[in-house]
Amino acid sequence: MSKICFPVHVALTFLLTVPLWSVAQTLSCAEIQGQTDISPYEGQQVTVAGKVTEFFGDMWYLQDDYGAWNGLYCVGPDVTIEANPPWWNAPRQPEVGDVLELTGTIVEENGNTQLVDIISFVFNDFWNATAAGTGVTVDQLQDEGLEGTRVRLDPVTVETAPDEDGIWTISDATGTATIIGVDTDDPGDNEDADGPTPGDVYRVYGALRQIGEEYVIDLGDIDTLSLVVGVSEPWASTLRVYPTPAEDRLSIAGIAGEYAWSLMDAMGRVVKQGRHNGRLKIEVGDMEPGRYILTVREEGGTTSRPVLVR
Predict the structure, then answer these.
(1) Rounded distance, CA 151 to CA 131, Å?
(2) pLDDT tens digit string along 218-274?
(3) Of 113, 177, 282, 290, which residue is the least packed, with the fewest Cβ within 10 Å?
(4) 134-226 sits in which CATH class?
(5) Would 2-125 and 134-226 be classified into the same CATH topology?
């Protein structure tokens, strides 16, 4: 690999030995995606420019506009950005906020449109702000148009804790989805140092990709909305909240003894709350349609469930 270095304020260009005549035209992510399951550029060499939205070592996501069809999954183990003191003191791979122009080959793998075999790249800028992502519900995640783009789920409840591979599940009132990765912030700065726990309520950001028949989120970040403290698993597993969606009344069952309950909207505001003993019906016909989180607390445990009101 030959490297050409310029002052920091000049775009850095890195060319691997490649004839200039072989470099293809610059395309947008949407043109590469083709707004179809299979890219019209599959097997072809292309050049694309955009901003890194999520990175995971030698693979990352590139986006050149907000919303559907505007993202691309990139694999580039040989893409190394030179040291740039005082901002970073050693060569590194692309990170969130970097602006890059990449030339490589488009392939389809496991349902994902990918840029691989990157033969050259231009590093234009760094530390740029990135969009929070397209706000979606779990059922809306299953959308080819969002593949490769940043998405946001808000709020969702943890159903299963991360396994040894960092795979966990969340749910909202529309279904259950898989998350890959955990928050790697310093525990001293992380409000949820123990990691996702069943019943925790989060806002989740990340990039969407396909694995088999399912679309999953490569975790970028989480915002804590509500944490579970001392969850009693047997009790949490017997809790029943129905129907969802609810139109007039929401029922709570499966709890023996007195408990406190609250309904929180998507902004984290408590809209209804109370205490009860045994089965309960909550009037929701006077509430605005939308997504809510029902939190139930009793001695020895707290748990939450997503609720949809229509």
Answers:
(1) 9
(2) 999 988 876 765 444 455 667 888 897 899 999 998 887 888 999 987 666 789 999
(3) 290
(4) mainly beta
(5) yes
